[in-house]
Amino acid sequence: MIDYIFAILSTTVKLFALMTPPAVLSAFLSGTKQYDEQLRRKTALKTSCSVFIIGIVLFFFGNTMFSVFGFTLDAFRIGSGALLFITAVSLMNDSPEKNKINSDDDISVVPLAIPLCMGPASIGTIIVMGTSSIGIVSNTVGAISLFVASMGIYIMLLCAKTIAKVLKNTGIAILSKLTGLLISAIAAQVVFTGISAFLK
Which of 2, 32, 75, 155 has the fewest CB atoms within 10 Å distance of its CB? Predict the structure, then answer.
């Protein structure tokens, strides 16, 4: 039971980091300046629901891509790992000003859910996770982790104004750098796993 809980927690942290919360937070703050509290909450809910639905579809049906396009899991690991590195580098060079949105349109699905939360790197990682998961336990861990990570995004967006007041631009920038470091470590592990399996 403890191992089960630990697996959910570790997978949730990984997924939440891949969703680049600092970039999502700054984009949400910029795009909802003119929103009232009800519309802001609705946008946060739609974003988190979109992230969860996209994640579940990729997790359970992403392996169909392998049979359709004919590439291997290890090749996809290496490719998604490379994208993770790019995401990490972009976060290290990121700033809140770069994520400003000036639009009166609904921003919940685009750009918050896609491509900020669900960019190429997170999509690739979720597909690899789904393809690697064998059995009910592994699939349950993945699904629960996706749900909790999506709820984490929802809670973060609900508390966006409070977080912004506490962290300010400098704090958000520091958080972005730390997220970038974590993602770079995940990317290194993904690439290493893919190369090791390929060489065997």
Answer: 2
